[in-house]
Amino acid sequence: MRVFVAGATGAVGRFLVEQLIGDGHQVVGTSRRAEGVERLRAAGAEGVVLDVFDAEAVADAVAAAAPDAVIHQLTSLSGGTSADNGRIRREGTRHLVDAAKRAGVERMVAQSVAWVYEPGDEPADESVPLDLGADEPRLTTVNGIVALEHTVAEIEHHVMLRYGQLYGPGTWYRRGGVADAVLHGDSSDPAAKFLGGLPANAAVASFVHVADAARAAVAALEWSDGVVNIVDDEPAAARDWVPVLAAAVGAPAPEPSSGRAGWERGATNTLARSLGWDPQFPTWRTGFGAGV
Question: What is the CATH number of the domain that holds 174?
Answer without folding.
Answer: 3.40.50.720
